[in-house]
What does this fold into?
Amino acid sequence: MIDHVGFEVAEMRRSGAFYDPVFFALGARRTFESEHAIAYGVNGPEFWVVVRGRPPAPAYGHVALRANGRAAVDAAYGAGLAAGGRDDGPPGPRPQYGRGCYAAYLLDPDGLRVELVSRR
It folds into this structure.
């Protein structure tokens, strides 16, 4: 249903340094890279980070990245913190979002909210 998601960021290099290890921990990789954009995915570009020349607006919403189990949530959360992200909710069960839901929340370098979620 969704073709892709994009975050508009202030600094491409800083954002790439954050998202590279997060997506690596989730089994994805860079599928596109230019001066103004980076895209991540498994078989093609699904998550885009772009520079638009406007300041980012924290707290407008979030993107949820699917993880393959709790260990992947934990690994991506740790990778994001190590890469300059900030905690916005540590890994743990989230039964309010469904049976088996396990998630963590990070803020990227621009303050945009990233959810890491497994429903196993």
